[in-house]
Write a structure and sequence with these properties.
The complex is a heterodimer of chains A (268) and B (323). By secondary structure, chain A is mainly alpha-helical. Chain A has a domain of 184 residues: Orthogonal Bundle (MetI-like fold). Chain A contains 13 helices and no strands. In chain A, helix 4 crosses helix 6 and helix 11 packs antiparallel against helix 12. Chain B is mostly helical. In chain B, strand 1 and strand 2 form a beta hairpin. Classes of the chains: A mainly alpha (268), B mainly alpha (323).
Chain lengths: 268, 323
């Protein structure tokens, strides 16, 4: 009896908490589909709101910018993470007693601590309002986590596979690409997902560095919602468009997101 | 200074290592693992790590040093900068607006850190003792806010808190019309309202962290507690909570740091207003850097935030390891 009631209370409390978490999301989705400008839920679903929001906010432009930045950062970031993780995890690095702590320090440095000189330096180099500039910053700030993450992955591989490859005369480059990387794909996929999410979801960096035609989707959404205060349904539709890419990935790869973010938090 | 030196030293050493990198493995095979061969492999390693290290040094380490330098000047971003010593740091004590941001952070810590950790512990305890069907769905739902972009989260809650939004409508529906208000426009309620957004975002992350930690607590401890006749509540306080000390330390560090750094949510929902009631250091930094340029002041805020983050991380880790 008491075990049974304990069980029921578990479900009741968890369900109440789940409903509280879902409440804002649910009303937002209802608003996005509502014909009512104030966004009151309605049984008459207006799927056309998405199209209207897409054209009114010129999301085609800003989503392309976001996608360009994100894909570039993911590709370059993954290659650098593999190279760095291989160096620190397998080969060893001259000066790693200084260099590795320096890299770990980077995981604790927030963007706020560097944004001011970064902006004024990049401005003098013509790299503000320039996708290349933002890509560089994302990549540079991602190096510490990338090296840390891939180093751990390389160290979890059995040493034997490198030694036997060495006997066969494989150089460090070949050992990396044809022996280590194929064995590391799960860690690489997780890294790609996290890197995609962090870059796509960024707001602060894009807000400071990119304007006008170079706006990312998140910043464009911020501008759009300021302009459409009276059309809640369109604003909500726009929000769902911007959130969609990462949400879809989360639906498919839930476990990888959760385990990756946990490992990144614990760092040991 | 030493940081900048280390960053600049990377390319030079990398160039030296380049010529010998390809020979490193062959050499090692001939002579076995001599220290000479190992050094060559480590040179190759430096070459492999160099591209990432260089970009990192240029984009993170060098600006970090420059932030320090900027923070000792008064500069509007255009005319010549003037050396002012520690003035930009002293304004944390003399400028009432800047000082108020630190008070606001203390309030936000309750909502970004203490409340999510309490809720995370509760839900983790319920999910782990459950171990029944459907728990994965709860985990999926509670973690969902973690993957939403901050702009969308801000919009979700701008709508929730709006004068005609769902919260006020719910209050009217149960006859509590007197409590309805424009939550984000209210001097008293705006800060807790913004804080609760943080609670909503963070608690699922804390929960997942605690579930992972609880799974590594030895089942024997639970059995022993049951033998002593402990109920679920006593079991939680005598076994689960002590076993999660490390995870709680991680959660405290991350969430307090998040409260200190809060920007996106606040910038989109309230811009720090009404008045300065939701102003945080990061919003003050943004305004000083890019709205009404007082660049040195902005750099000083960034430096102070970085130092506070480091102190928080070190203190919490030390305390959790000592006990």
């Amino acid at each position: 009896m008491s075990v049974r009631s304990e069980k029921i209370w578990n479900y009741v409390i968890l369900t109440v908490m789940a409903l509280i978490v879902l409440w804002p999301v649910g009303t937002f989705i209802a608003a996005a589909l509502s014909p009512d400008r104030a966004g009151r839920p309605s049984a008459d679903l207006q799927w056309g709101n998405f199209l209207t929001a897409w054209t009114n906010a010129e999301f085609a432009q800003s989503m392309t910018v976001s996608l360009t930045i994100t894909v570039a950062v993911v590709i370059v970031g993954t290659v650098l993470a593999l190279l760095g993780g291989y160096a620190f995890g397998v080969l060893g690095v001259v000066g790693d007693r200084v260099l590795f702590p320096l890299i770990l320090l980077g995981m604790m440095i927030s963007l706020e601590a560097i944004i001011v000189p970064l902006y004024y330096q990049f401005r003098s180099l013509g790299l503000t309002d320039n996708l290349l500039g933002v890509i560089l910053i994302h990549v540079g700030m991602g190096v510490p986590f990338g090296v840390f993450w891939m180093r751990a992955a390389f160290r979890s591989l059995p040493r034997g596979i490198f030694e036997s490859a060495e006997m066969d005369g494989a150089g460090p480059m070949r050992m990396l690409w044809s022996i280590a990387v194929p064995n590391l794909m799960p860690a690489v996929y997780t890294f790609i997902l996290l890197s995609f999410m962090w870059t796509w979801n960024d707001y602060f960096l894009s807000l400071v560095f990119l304007h006008g035609d170079n706006q990312t989707a998140t910043v464009a959404l911020g501008v759009f919602q300021g302009r459409y205060v009276t059309q809640i349904n369109l604003m909500a539709a726009g929000g769902l468009i911007v959130a969609a890419p990462v949400l879809i990935l989360y639906v498919i790869f839930q476990r990888k997101f959760i385990s990756g973010m946990l490992a990144g938090a614990i760092k040991e | 200074m030493s940081i900048a030196h280390a960053g600049a030293a990377v390319p030079r050493e990398a160039d030296d290592g380049g010529s010998s990198a390809t020979q490193a493995i062959a050499t090692r095979r001939r002579r076995g693992r001599t220290s000479h061969a190992r050094r060559r492999t480590r040179m190759a390693g430096l070459l492999f790590a160099a591209p990432g290290l260089l970009i990192y040094a240029g984009v993170v380490l060098w600006p970090l040093v420059q932030s320090l330098q900027y923070s000792f000047y008064k500069w509007d971003g255009i005319t010549a900068a003037v050396w002012v010593g520690f003035e930009n740091y002293l304004s944390f004590f003399t400028d009432p607006i800047l000082r108020s941001t630190l008070g606001n952070v203390l309030v936000l810590i309750v909502f970004f850190s203490l409340l999510p950790i309490a809720l995370g512990l509760l839900s983790a305890a319920l999910i782990t003792t459950g171990k029944r069907r459907g728990m994965a769905i709860y985990r999926w739902i509670f973690f969902l806010p973690q993957v939403l972009t901050s702009v969308v989260i801000a919009l979700l809650f701008k709508r929730m808190y709006a004068p005609e939004g769902p919260i006020n409508e719910a209050l009217r529906a149960i006859g509590l019309d007197a409590l309805t208000k424009n939550w984000l426009g209210d001097f008293t309620w705006a800060l807790p309202a913004v804080g609760l957004i943080g609670t909503w975002v963070t608690f699922g992350f804390c929960m997942v962290l605690f579930i992972a930690g609880a799974s590594s607590i030895s089942p024997e401890l639970y059995e022993a507690a049951r033998m002593d006749g402990a109920g679920p509540v006593r079991e939680f306080f005598s076994v689960t909570l002590p076993g999660l000390r490390g995870q709680i330390a991680v959660a405290l560090t991350l969430t307090i740091t998040a409260a200190l750094r809060a920007f996106d949510l606040i910038w989109i929902t309230t811009r720090g207003g009404p008045g300065t009631s939701t102003l945080t250091p990061a919003v003050a930094l943004y305004k000083a850097a890019f709205v009404n340029p007082d660049v040195g002041q902005a750099a000083a805020i960034g430096v102070v935030m970085a130092i506070l983050c480091l102190i928080i991380a070190v203190v919490i880790t030390r305390v959790s390891e000592r006990e």
